[in-house]
Amino acid sequence: MTTYLVPLVLIGGLTSVGVYLLLERNLTRMLLGLLLISNAINLLILTVAGPSGNPPVRGRTSADEASTADPLAQGMILTAIVISMGIAAFILALAYRSYRLTTAEEVGNDPEDTRVSSMAAQEAAVLDEDRPPEPDLAIDTDLPDELDALPGRDGSR
């Protein structure tokens, strides 16, 4: 199977730019990143589907192709396009509603999440202070105990 380099580079570029845009705090950039990643996945499905061929319709041929094209990849890509457009519409509605409420498109930290995470950090610090120090298991006394595998000096186990 021959793999062409241009689609693979394009898939990698679209994915990396999409991830970079998803990590931004701007809702429009997040949406663009999501759309770029969905397009990269569609291109990946098309590339993995194999070479083109005759249409998957009985009695139809194209040029001088010997094999039939795989219709599963085409159906998956059409489904993915519909799903990504639905998600894009939902995110656009969220961005519009957020802008109407706060007149800012930046996504800020949620005050409640910040409060809960600071409380968890304080509780962890208190638990660490109350915990007794763990015994050092590397220190070995010469007294025999049940875990010693070697007999003691006096020949007893």
UniProtKB/TrEMBL annotation:
Cross-referenced InterPro entries: CPA3_antiporter_subunitC (IPR050601), NUOK/Mnh_C1-like (IPR039428)
Name of the protein this chain belongs to: Cation:proton antiporter
Membrane topology: Multi-pass membrane protein
Transmembrane segments: 6-23, 30-52, 72-96
Compositional bias segments (type: Acidic residues): 137-148
Family: Belongs to the CPA3 antiporters (TC 2.A.63) subunit C family.
Gene source species: Mycolicibacterium doricum
Gene3D superfamilies found in the cross-reference section: 1.10.287.3510
Domain of life: Bacteria
